[in-house]
Amino acid sequence: ARLSVRDALRVQSPSGERVTVQGWVRSVRSQKEVLFLHVNDGSSLESLQIVADSNLESRELDFGCSVEIQGQLVKSPYKRQNVELKAEKIEVVGTCDPKDFPLKYKDRPPLEYLRQFPHLRCRTNALGSILRVRSEATAAVHSFFKDNGFVHIHTPIITSNDCEGAGELFQVEPSSKIKVPEENFFDVPAFLTVSGQLHLEVMSGAFTQVFTFGPTFRAENSQSRRHLSEFYMVEAEISFVESLQDIMQVMEGLFKSVTAMVLASCPEDVALCHKFIAPGQKDRLEHMLKNNFLTISYTEAVEILKQASQNFTFTPTWGVDLYTEHEKYLVEHCGNIPVFVINYPLSLKPFYMRDNEDGPQHTVAAVDLLVPGVGELFGGSLREERYHFLEQRLARSGLTKAYQWYLDLRRFGSVPHGGFGMGFERYLQCILGIDNIKDVIPFPRFTHSCIL
Ligand code: 4AD
Ligand code: MG
Fold first, then answer.
1. Which domain holds residue 306?
2. What's the pLDDT score for residue 163?
């Protein structure tokens, strides 16, 4: 039978079962009469130990090559593992010259070095673990929403709206080889989506609780450690909410449930990151999980920052957006517990956020969740569900014509509703302690970089 390394390692009391295992060689060690190999196929962090008679050794058998091995599963005499494969036949499927291969045996190369090899770095322990965690976290996000009665919606990638109104759009056009009858393929300018929110709002007006989880795109000219041009966003939208707190509860629940599921489903992979990439992160994460998230208002945040102005290159005053350095300070100030910052100035936020109608310091019912190590992880709000308020906001932004359909939603059975978006890569950075966002996505896209 063909077995994955993971399944082979899970055999409790091996008794000579004949199996075939395939994978890539992680180490070759030959002693007088015995040859030891470690083979990994990505199904687990751990590699399978292969023990063979020296006469099965060939010149082609080297670090990095791909192999197919037939043999018998037996109990291992070594303490570290339960099972090993006693090889009867070793076939090198594809050779690998270690002289030219950029990954080296026994190395723990820094993530920054590995970034040069997006086509090979997935064969290291570090990227293997990070990407398996990413896969488990993806499944956990879907479970969380399914368990809580949300309907999954495929929101479009190509859209004509700029949800966030920030103008950070990638425009979509057919390649110049394609003959288009009119000026625009879609008649209107079309873009890669920056957020599925507006489409989710449509759907929450029918399914009550909806979510989407897909790629989003922003042409931010930024070389930061937490921005990508293409990133994945988890977005939810909920109808009949009573307050911003209803939304915040789902945000905290999502963070804590998904993390608990990931810790349960791939503990070894998480442990590898916590041990070798981000020492101390295990305790920091436990601290986040066992405490209730805190809440402060934007106004309180600005007061806290003013008191600490000596720490910043720029100190915000009321009405100004917070920078990464401010977000990081606020999280530390709150004892490294995630903190919701609510009620931002209306002037800073997009047209769709609900007016708090609160006098001279005019705010909207917006919420950002700031987390240790990363800063902003979630952005969300109550949406303006009142027709006349929304009509005025759209008019002020010159968007009335394009958003007639959006206004319609406020004419035909409008309800108080709200939602949020969580940057999925930032979430992975936060739980694993990974400093650079480029290391938690298989193929990062950012300014001047779209190889592969
Ligand atoms: O705060 P943002 O812009 O919120 C929205 O787009 C809302 N329409 C979401 C909603 O309410 N449905 O983005 C949400 C999150 C941010 O908090 C951040 O974690 C992440 O998306 N994000 C990015 N992640 C990586 N690279 C970028 N360039 C990002 N821009 C935002
Ligand atoms: Mg935001």
1. 121-439
2. 85
pLDDT confidence band for 250 (50 / 70 / 90): very high
Instruction: Tell whether 228 and 327 lie within a shared domain.
Output: yes
Nearest partner of 202 among 155, 146, 167, judged by Cα? 155
Question: Which pair of structure tokens corresponds to residue 290?
Answer: 């066992």
84 CB-contact burial (10 Å; exposed 0-12 / middle 13-18 / buried 19+): buried
* pTM strictly above 0.90: yes
Domain match, 165 and 253 both:
yes
Give the pLDDT confidence score for residue 108 in this predicted structure: 86
Residue 9 lies in a domain: yes
Determine the 3-state secondary structure of 368 from DSSP. Answer: strand
Mean pLDDT on 294-301: 98
Q: Could you tell me how many residues make up the chain?
A: 452
Name which residue sits closest to atom 18 of ligand 1, judged by CA. 423
User: The complex's ipTM?
Assistant: 0.99
The answer to whether residue 112 is domain-embedded is no
Whether 421 is in the pocket of ligand 1, judged by its Cβ within 6 Å, is yes
Q: Look up the CATH number of the domain holding residue 159.
A: 3.30.930.10
Q: Which atom of ligand 1 is nearest to the CA of 194?
A: 6
Residue owning the nearest CA to atom 11 of ligand 1:
420
Average pLDDT for the chain: 95
Query: Whose CA is closest to atom 30 on ligand 1?
Result: 227
Total domain count, the chain:
2
